[in-house]
Amino acid sequence: MNKFIDHQIIARKVHFDFSQTPRHWVPNDVLATHVLNSMHVLLPAVEHWFCRLANKTLPYVNDKNLKADIRGFIAQEAAHANAHKGAEIYFQTHGIDPTPFKHFLEWMFKDGFMGDTPFGIYGPFKRYSKQWLAFRMGIIAGLEHYFCFFGTWVLDAEGLEHADPAMLDIVRWHGAEEVEHRTVGYDAYRALAGDHLKGYLGRQLSMSFAFIAMVGFWLGASVYLCKLDNTPEAKRISRKNPLALIWAFQQTAKQKKSLPDLVMILTALKGWSKFNYHPEHDGDVKKALAYIANSPAAQQVAEAYAQALAAKMNR
Ligand SMILES: [Fe+2]
Ligand SMILES: [Fe+2]
Fold this sequence. Notes:
Protein name: Metal-dependent hydrolase
Keywords: Membrane, Transmembrane, Transmembrane helix
InterPro entries: UCP07580
Largest sheet: none
Order of helices and strands: HHHHHHHHHHHHHH
Bound molecules: fe (ii) ion
Shape: globular
Organism: Acinetobacter courvalinii
Number of domains: 1
Transmembrane segments: 133-155, 205-226
């Protein structure tokens, strides 16, 4: 732990049961359902990439508290990726198969554009491996800035109150842990790039890339899932042009409150652009930890563990 996180970050055991989840699990809201479903498609590859890069950052970190936080971060992100993989049963039940896109993402983050030696190009990426790592850790810090923003939003999202309980729990549990470890990616980036002008400019460059990639992949994955969903409303959404889709997103955010407001998403960049920005002031950690303690998925595992222990004692 360090001065920004007053407890050790750990991966928690959770179990989500999506076997009863309806196709459109945000009731009467196909767009919000698939915009949120895109997490299950995008995040396993993205968060495994976070784990690999955070692990490569460890040798550059001298502070033993930050090292412990990074190890906790890796454990949590791996648990998130695995939890989202569990949504495969939901996709299978409803005849939606995003496997080709998931394979593409795995390739892109391992061997493609975001890999250590993109497309097998060794020379510059080996010679400047620390700078390449710092640029990509800056992207991770930028994405973590947004994951904390989305986590803060989802814990209070009124428009999701009547959503399927298992899906609502995974998005809130994940969001809460993003709020909990909000400083780690940023501090790992600082360990590589420093706090001075170079580090500041580097994180602005990384965020420019992270923001465009996040918006592009998020909307792209949402449209892709709508294309795979054979219901008329999903097909109608999948035929929208990008501007009409952004408009529909914003209308849903304003009227149904089942998606975050685009103006708020844009203004979240303001804090990041400040020279002395640090994510320690983002999100409400107490609220996040309270959700984690009461999450149905965590309680289910705790109850199963208590029952197994009681059965063992009675033997
Ligand atoms: Fe995560
Ligand atoms: Fe995270």
